[in-house]
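Lab notebook, design round three. We kept the backbone fixed and only want residue identities now. Task for the bench partner: fill in a sequence for the structure below.
Input structure tokens:
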């Protein structure tokens, strides 16, 4: 019953979304049946219906991973009151819990449905040459719609943050927060000293593991990659996926942190509340509360101690600028009075990737040819028991490699992650997956449709350390409009070269004897738009990257954390907005450099650490202004591995 309900709801949602897609405004989120009928009233998790107070100790904007953790941790003290405001709705477990349904969730209103601007060197096989930039909207934020991949990043990432002038953020200092958050069930590594056993956040081996996964891990080892725990600080190697699931069901920041805390009288969780502005005393530059819209009514609420923005890398930056905190010239162009001149949105990093290479399996190894064939009673029973194909997001194993164009000379810092999926995009014979990734009909029909009804699988190389960077700008003063993303994929050619190397390494691993025993062959059809290049040549793979460009929810640095001397810094090492009082940003937007991680795990520990920072400030009553010191010698705007740790 549960899985049939999931599939029915997703089918209806996708159908309604398709009906409205062409006529919806550019900035609108996905329109689904959920926009017209609020299923959360009947099927959603009940986070309460609080009577709003005029004032709380803390007002937190955004119930994503960081905001949820922060709200739950702060209200462990019954004397502390917290209002958590979320623009979206509560999650519906029937819809959101099934990992295999992840692509379909991106066609619902749980997704803000951001898109890049039209591209010239990437996203060429996608609708309007725009890549989809999914960000979650609802209790749980992007943990509702992401692929549940739990990777903390490399110890060198965190040490680089600390070395750049952010004390307290080194690997050794952040590892305890990872352990505190985690409840691990990872068969090979959960007792190696790097994993928690009693935290709220479930991390487990995916219950489903195909023959492709075990063959990939064996072949990668034969190709020279060690088998390791990529969450123990070092990553160059291969391992099976560690996922935010519990007995094969999705775990979100909502059901892990907020659900157990939902009945606390000092925690109020308000959904469908879209914050439009931070209230700021301009004389003292003190955040005093927020303005939000709910049920068509504009309301305000005050904060005694702090206003904390946890709305994500895009919405927190947008909200700061709408409130007068941002680049003075940009705000002036919209006639927004400038409260504090800061480089909000001046920096934006992305983890670009690529769909492919794709392989055909000639031997009859299993029955995972199409989704339709696997929607059956047996698989439903398996799912209800916490096993089977519905418990996978499709990614089963990860391999980390270092390309020849990697910026860092450190041999232990990879720049490309290769995700191994048990199937390829053609596994979903419906419209959900192609729509989620914005594949044009020409791209899908010309490349993926020919291998429908054949056993296939694919890799998803992702660039962890891109050279290309962009900016986030306001599109208008309308708080409901999406921001403008001034980001050009592969503006630096080395980003293409790194992904091509990742694809070639995937091909090398798949040429090993274990795969040959399965009759695995490289799918040699040319991607539409790349026919001018002979298949398999370097120029062909470059074209493949630029045409089948992928993205993975990992944009960072829009509210960069840095020391007072960093011209790009928006917040200090305690996440306090420079030049402001009682205002912090606590989300993935503060991460200063692109991490070798899927960012959900990082967001969870940002929330964990921020809880300690906020409590410490309250204990000391320390709400003084932190100013940037432009007179100090300016450090490098971007950490360079050539400066640290080798100098």
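Proposed sequence:
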């Amino acid at each position: 019953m549960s899985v049939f309900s999931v599939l029915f709801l997703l089918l209806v949602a996708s159908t309604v979304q398709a009906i409205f897609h062409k006529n919806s405004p550019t900035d609108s989120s996905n329109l689904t049946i959920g926009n017209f009928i609020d299923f959360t009233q009947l099927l959603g998790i009940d986070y309460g219906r609080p009577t709003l107070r005029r004032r709380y100790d803390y007002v937190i904007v955004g119930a994503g991973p960081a905001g949820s953790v922060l709200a739950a941790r702060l209200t462990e003290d019954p004397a502390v009151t917290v209002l958590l405001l979320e623009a979206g709705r509560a999650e519906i477990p029937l819809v959101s819990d099934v990992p295999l349904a992840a692509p379909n969730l991106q066609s619902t209103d749980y997704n803000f449905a951001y898109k890049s601007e039209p591209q010239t060197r990437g996203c060429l096989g996608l609708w309007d040459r725009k890549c989809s930039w999914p960000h979650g909207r609802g209790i749980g934020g992007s943990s509702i719609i992401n692929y549940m991949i739990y990777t903390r990043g490399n110890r060198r990432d965190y040490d680089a943050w600390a070395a750049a002038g952010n004390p307290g953020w080194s690997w050794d200092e952040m590892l305890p927060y990872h352990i505190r958050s985690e409840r691990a069930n990872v068969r090979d590594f959960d007792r190696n000293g790097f994993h928690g056993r009693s935290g709220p956040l479930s991390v487990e081996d995916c219950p489903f593991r195909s023959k492709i996964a075990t063959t990939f891990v064996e072949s990668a080892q034969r190709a020279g990659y060690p088998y390791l725990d990529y969450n123990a600080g070092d990553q160059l190697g291969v391992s099976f996926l560690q996922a935010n699931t519990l007995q094969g069901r999705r775990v979100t920041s909502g059901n892990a942190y907020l659900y157990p805390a939902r009945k606390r009288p000092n925690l109020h969780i308000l959904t469908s509340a879209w914050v439009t502005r931070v209230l700021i005393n301009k004389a003292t530059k003190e955040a005093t509360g927020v303005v939000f819209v709910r049920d068509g009514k504009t309301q305000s609420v005050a904060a005694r101690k702090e206003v904390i923005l946890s709305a994500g890398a895009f919405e927190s930056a947008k909200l700061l600028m709408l409130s007068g905190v941002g680049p003075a010239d940009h705000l002036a162009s919209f006639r927004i009075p400038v409260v504090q001149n800061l480089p909000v949105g001046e920096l934006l990093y992305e983890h670009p990737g690529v769909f492919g290479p794709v392989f055909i399996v000639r031997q009859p190894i299993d029955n995972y040819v199409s989704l339709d064939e696997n929607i059956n009673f047996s698989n439903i029973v398996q799912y209800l028991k916490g096993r089977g194909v519905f418990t996978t997001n499709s990614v089963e194993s990860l391999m980390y490699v270092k390309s020849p164009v990697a910026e860092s000379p450190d041999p232990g810092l990879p720049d490309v992650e290769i995700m191994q999926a048990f199937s390829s995009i053609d596994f979903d014979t419906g419209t959900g997956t192609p729509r989620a990734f914005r594949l044009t009909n020409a791209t899908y029909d010309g490349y993926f449709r020919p291998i429908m009804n054949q056993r296939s699988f694919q890799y998803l190389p992702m660039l962890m350390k891109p050279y290309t960077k962009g900016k986030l700008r306001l599109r208008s003063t309308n708080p409901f409009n999406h921001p403008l993303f001034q980001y050009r994929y592969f503006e630096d050619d080395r980003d293409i070269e790194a992904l091509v190397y990742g694809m070639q390494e995937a091909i090398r691993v798949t040429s090993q004897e274990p795969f040959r025993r399965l009759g695995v062959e490289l799918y040699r059809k040319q991607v539409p738009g790349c026919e001018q290049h002979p298949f398999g040549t370097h120029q062909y793979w470059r074209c493949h990257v630029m045409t089948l460009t992928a993205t993975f929810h990992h944009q960072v640095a829009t509210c960069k954390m840095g020391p007072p001397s960093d011209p790009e810094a928006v917040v200090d090492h305690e996440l306090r907005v420079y030049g402001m009082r009682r205002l912090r940003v606590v989300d993935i937007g503060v991460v200063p450099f692109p991490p070798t991680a899927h960012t959900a795990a990082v967001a969870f520990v940002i929330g964990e650490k921020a809880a300690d920072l906020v409590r410490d400030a309250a204990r000391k009553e320390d709400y003084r202004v932190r100013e940037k010191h432009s007179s100090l010698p300016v450090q490098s705007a971007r950490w360079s591995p050539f400066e640290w740790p080798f100098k």
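Keep this in mind before ordering anything: The first strand starts at residue 55 and ends at 61.
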